[in-house]
Specification:
The protein is mainly α. Helix 6 runs antiparallel to helix 7, helix 8 crosses helix 9 and helix 10 packs antiparallel against helix 11. Strand 4 and strand 5 form a beta hairpin. 50% of the residues lie in helices and 7% in strands. It binds acetyl coenzyme *A. Acetyl coenzyme *A binds next to loops.
């Protein structure tokens, strides 16, 4: 990646009796950054920023978020335009290559992905080693890490062609692995991919078809699934993406790095939030119980799941598309009167007008409506984060690839402020 940052003057710091000047760098949009790479050498101090609330860890040309304005762009294109007019595979191409494909480029890309969807037959047997009630995310972490044991011929990170093959393999095989994690948990036979089907159609079929009867993919549900994948495809330097970059910075192979990203995504503050949001709506149950529940949030007994975001201090632009998709799915399934949807809409209405939430800029995030939608489509809540991982895989790979191709890339190695004991003499066990 060729750097595109431009100089923007200097920042001057006074630290004790020293004055140091650090360059300010400008991106194409968004806040400027102070380049503090030489701070330790020149001033003998580190910076302290737990949670990285003020720290840019890399230069990137993939995804841009303006949290105050509620804007999300993939390679410059607004998320709502992509969700409305594009397809997940086209978005994959965009994220990986930086530009939307021509018709010829897209046909070739789609064919490549389609013809990599099968897993090695030995890999299918690998699933049998998990306990029958294993959480599908536990299977995902293990199975994706295990890809590096099956596809050695694409783990040389210094070979551009191997990097490309591993990217295609992961985008193609992730739905097959995710569907197997689901089938394994429900005790049904694995369903093989079919090359005449689109990406989302194929995934739904691998999840919901059974040998006992024919399965016809519902076009509205397939479009909703594809759109959900688009919405989750990338989100710049979030926790799991930063994990992928950090794991990759040591030179680890891409399959191992993506497995690390999946592990990070599993947590309830990140990818696990949609499961928590659905559980919360079920716990509230009916609209009349909302005021009591909201009071509990204000008393700080619990948080409103599916609300708030580290970066968005406005309506999450993905949540708007998700809300529309939720309505479309419930309509086609005849579940318009679903009590959980009524609770969600009323909770959103109250939260958007209540000063407690307004003052803290707490708006619905993408997870608020995704749980109801996925549940209506037939996915158990344990699968929600798996679907997120499937979609985010392309973002992780695009970010990993960008990092590997960045000439300024170094192993990620944060510093610390140490507050433990200073040097002391070892005491033998009999004298303690
Ligand atoms: N419900 C109630 N209050 C909240 C919520 C919430 N969901 N989120 C934040 N707040 C309040 C905090 O109590 C705090 O109030 P205070 O200033 O009076 O102490 C204030 O808002 C700021 O909260 P922070 O925790 O500092 O915000 P942070 O940026 O660290 O947290 C997070 C972001 C983790 C997403 C948080 O909003 C949250 O826990 N939300 C619920 C979980 C969730 O939906 N996560 C999904 C995120 S999107 C994704 O990963 C795809």
């Amino acid at each position: 990646m060729d750097s595109k940052v431009t100089p923007g003057g200097n920042a001057v710091f006074t630290i004790g009796d020293k004055t140091v000047e650090m360059p300010i760098l400008k991106g194409s949009t968004g806040p400027d950054v102070v380049d503090i790479r030489k701070l330790y050498a020149e001033a003998d101090v580190f910076t302290y920023d737990p949670g990285f609330t003020s720290t840019a860890s890399c230069e990137s040309q993939i995804t841009y978020i303006d949290g105050d304005a509620g804007v999300l762009l993939y390679r410059g294109y607004p998320i709502d335009q992509l969700a409305e007019n594009s397809s997940f595979l086209e978005v994959c191409y965009l994220l990986l290559h930086g530009e939307l494909p021509t018709a010829t480029q897209f046909a070739e890309f789609e064919r490549t992905i389609t013809y990599h969807t099968m897993l090695h037959e030995q890999f299918d047997r690998f699933f049998q080693t998990f306990r029958r009630d294993a959480h599908p995310m536990a299977i995902m972490v293990g199975a994706v890490g295990a890809l590096s044991a099956f596809y050695h011929d694409s783990t040389n990170i210094h070979d551009e062609r191997q990097r490309q093959i591993s990217a295609h393999r992961m985008i193609a095989k992730m739905p097959t692995i995710a569907a197997r994690a689901f089938k394994y948990a429900v005790g049904q036979p694995f369903v093989y991919p079919r090359n005449e089907l689109g990406y989302a159609d194929n995934f739904l079929r691998m999840c919901f078809a059974v040998p006992a009867e024919d399965y016809k993919v519902n076009k509205v549900l397939a479009r909703a699934m594809d759109r959900i994948f688009i919405l989750h495809a990338d989100h710049e330097q979030n926790a799991s993406t930063s994990t992928v970059r950090l794991a990759g910075s040591s030179g680890a192979n891409p399959f191992a790095c993506i497995a690390a990203g999946i592990a990070c995504l599993w947590g309830p503050s990140h990818g696990g939030a949609n499961e928590e949001a659905l559980n919360m709506l079920k716990e509230i149950g009916t609209v009349d119980r909302i005021p009591e529940y909201v009071q509990g949030v204000k008393d700080r007994r619990y948080r409103l799941m599916g609300f708030g975001h580290r970066v968005y201090k406005n309506y999450d632009p993905r949540a708007k598309v998700m809300q529309k998709t939720c309505h479309e799915v419930l309509d086609v399934l005849g579940k318009r009167d679903e009590p959980l949807l009524q609770v969600a809409m009323e909770l959103e209405r109250i939260a958007l007008s209540d000063p407690y939430f307004v003052e803290r800029k707490l708006y619905p995030n993408i997870d608020f409506y995704s749980g109801i939608t996925l549940s209506a489509m037939g996915f158990p809540s344990e699968m929600f984060t798996v679907l997120f991982a499937l979609a985010r895989t392309v973002g992780w790979i695009a970010q990993w690839k960008e990092m590997i191709e960045d000439p300024s890339q170094k192993i990620g190695r944060p510093r610390q402020v140490y507050t433990g004991p200073t040097i002391r003499e070892f005491v033998p066990i009999e004298k303690r």
